[in-house]
Every structure is written in C-alpha cells, then in structure tokens.
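Long-time lurker, first post.

We've been arguing in lab meeting about whether guanosine-5'-triphosphate would sit comfortably in this protein at all. Half the group thinks yes, half thinks no, and nobody has a model to point at. So I'm putting the question to the forum: if I give you the sequence and the SMILES, can you give me back a predicted structure of the complex? Inputs are below. Any interpretation is welcome too.
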Amino acid sequence: MEIFWFVLGGVVLVLLIAAVTIIVGKERTLPPAEPAPALPSAEPEAAHSAPDEPVVAPVATDLSVPEPVGSRLSRLRRRLSASNNPFARGLLSVLSADRLDAEAWEDLEATLIAADLGVGPTEELVSALRRELTIDGASEPEHVKQVLRAELLKLVDTPADRSLRVTGADGVPGIVLVVGVNGTGKTTTIGKLSRVLVAEGHSLVLAAADTFRAAAADQLQTWGSRVGVEVVRGSEGGDPASVAFDAVAKGIADGVDVVVVDTAGRLHTKAGLMDELGKIKRVIERKAAVTEVLLVIDATTGQNGLAQARVFTEVVDVTGIVLSKLDGSAKGGIVVPVQRELGVPVKLIGLGEGPDDLAPFDAEEFVDALLAQ
Ligand SMILES: Nc1nc2c(ncn2[C@@H]2O[C@H](COP(=O)(O)OP(=O)(O)OP(=O)(O)O)[C@@H](O)[C@H]2O)c(=O)[nH]1
Ligand SMILES: [Mg+2]
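Top reply:
Settle the argument with this. Predicted structure of the protein with guanosine-5'-triphosphate, as tokens:
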C-alpha cells in the first residue's frame, strides 16, 4: 500500500513539473502585446550597421522648420509699433499733442529729421499735415491718424515691383548677389532669406564669396546647415569670383532653383572692393544671368549708411534694398530717402537677429505697423 502512494506521488510530481515546463515555454514564445513605438533616433541608420560598412554622414542634423511668411509678419509688426520703435513714437506724438501750434509742428519736424526721414520728405509731410489738419481741425485722433497714414503712404509707397527675382530662365538657376558695407547684415540676411526660400519649396546653393574674413564662410555654413542647404566655399584670401563661379556651376549641375552669393563688405581700399564686386558679377554672368542684386543697408546708420551704400549702386546694378536692423531703430525714416535717392525699392526688412526675423516689405503694412498703438 505504501508503495502505491509513493508511486502515485511520484507520478503527480512528474505531471506537475511537465505542466509548469509547458506553460513557461509557451509564455516565452508569446509575441509582445504591443510593439514599442520607435523613438526618433538622432543617430543615422548606418551607425547601427557592421563596423566595416561605410557610414553615411547626414547632410545636417539640426534642420529646423522656418516660420511661414504670414505668421512672421504679424509677429514682426509689433517691433515697428510705437511701444518698441522710437520713429513710430515720434510720429504718433502728433496725435497726443494737446494743441497743434507752431511749436508742436517744429517739434514734429525735428523728430522726423532725427529719424532720418530727410529734410525734403519731412517738409513735405509736415506741410501736408498742417494744411489738412488746420482746415479740418485736429480734434479727432482717429481723423488725424487717417491723414497721417495717407500722407506717410505717399512717401513710402513708390510705384515699384517689390517681388524678388529668384528664378532664372531656361532651366538655369536664378542668381541673387548680396552686397553692402561691412556689418550691415548681408550674411545674416542670406541666412534668413535661405529659410524663406526653403520654406517656399525652392532648392538652393549658397556661395561664400566673402573670402576676406576667416569666419565669414563658417557663419554662412551655420545658416545653410540649419535648413539643409549646401555652401560652396574657397580658401581664406582666395579669389571670391572663382568661389561665385564654382557655386553657380554647382547650382547648374545640381539643377537648383537659386544660387545666393555672399560678398565681403570691406577691403583694404574702396577701389579694390568695387573692382572685386564688378569682377564677381562678370564672372558669374559667363554662366548665368544675375537676376537680383540686393544691397543691404543698416537702418541704424541712417544718412551716413545711405551715402556709403550709394557707392555700390555705381558698380553693380542694384535691383532691391534690404533694410536691416529696423527693430527698435530711431532712424526708421530712412526707408523714404533710401528709395528716393537710390531709385531702388526696399524689398525686404530685417527686424531682429533671429532666424525668422526677415519680412517682405509692404508699404501699407509698414505704415500701419508704425501707426499701431
Ligand atoms: N537687431 C538686428 N541685428 C541684425 C539684423 N541683421 C543683422 N543683424 C546683426 O548685425 C551683425 C552683423 O551682421 P552680418 O550678417 O555678419 O553682417 P555682414 O554684412 O555680413 O558683415 P561683413 O561680413 O563683416 O561684411 C550681426 O550681429 C547680426 O546679428 C537685424 O535685422 N536686426
Ligand atoms: Mg558677412
């Protein structure tokens, strides 16, 4: 009897062990309930492959998405309004004056001249305002504002095509040459412009034809890599025209839409700089027509900056002005003499150092932003 219980116990034990083994084995082969979502990996795929396979370096790892033009305009408008912009504040003083007497008009005149509106345009504006506001009375701030808006627009809104000519003809890329005095914001503008062009779906190549300064090409490269745009560069002190030529050749070979060429703003002599710019343009034009020459002017340098900029118009046929550093500038009035004296429309405005702080210039938007309170 004892033997019977012993054998039965043994059989039960064996069966138990077998059952446990089967259950555990089955669980091991069960698929996981939900596959874990794949995390975006900073490492390129190739980095996980066998060590002897070639590793393809990514073009750029810090690609960022440029802000669309529509939303940047409303954001940037605030930088021109009276709370942030001394030029706008000066203009709006006419609204808050208790009485528009001779002294108030003189004050306004002085403010506008200090804001670099220029003597001629200031006199035109003040005498038009005096005429209209003396007849109609200046009691209604809304009316004064409307008169101010209309008269300002007459000065700012020159009849000109402000569109950027960035596309070429017959399958050849459009060529944008960017010139201007050193420090005005050429390289920064090209960086910001590249983002706008990429956001609009254009393909482009940048040319670091500023071989004068060591850091210039690096600065351009940083902007380019942010939006995945290639930069053609030469050696420091090398021939800028040949860098521009190579970039245009690459642009044609790669079939891109636009080649944007950065240039130096400073050389040992003015004549040297001008010769160099003329040469860059001639050399490019062996391969493709230059479709747009943008002259960058720093708004904070006012009339002085305008005088320096004029020299560039003598060497290259400038087709558009970029007015940089209009954010917080007390000299925003410069937009009027710039267009009048150079006979070239302002096409873009720079409103800060940030990557999306560039906006197309629109006369009505500009005036409305200035008069916004
Ligand atoms: N506040 C403000 N700063 C700007 C703007 N545009 C450019 N800057 C600043 O101005 C300085 C000079 O800009 P760059 O783009 O290097 O000027 P550049 O014309 O290329 O200068 P060079 O290469 O020396 O001829 C930089 O510190 C920019 O950040 C702008 O619209 N607003
Ligand atoms: Mg530069």
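For your lab meeting: The first strand starts at residue 174 and ends at 179. Confidence is low (pLDDT under 50) at residues 19-61. Whichever side wins, do check it experimentally.
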